[in-house]
Sequence to fold (89 residues):
Amino acid sequence: MANSKSALKRVRQIKRRTDRNKALRTKVKSLRKKTLDAAQSGNNEEAQNSMKLLASAVDKAWLKGIYHKNKAANIKSKAVKAIKAAASS
Fold:
């Protein structure tokens, strides 16, 4: 347990930030799954639409420091690769 007023304040701040970050991280995971499922099922139009939403959410997460820029690029790259692979087969 925190022993000083400043340490207690830091605990409160971390809790608020964790809740905020968790919401965005969950949104990214859901959109990634939706995109990959749409690509697997062959629904190319839905995959493209969800890819746009995924890219936007990942970029927001990167700007807020939730993901490293290379991690964000990796997430987007793998999703695009899956869409292209599904469309070609």
About this structure: The helical segments are 5-41, 44-63, 69-88. The CA atoms of residues 24 and 61 lie 7 Å apart. The mean pLDDT is 94. The two ends are 56 Å apart (CA to CA).
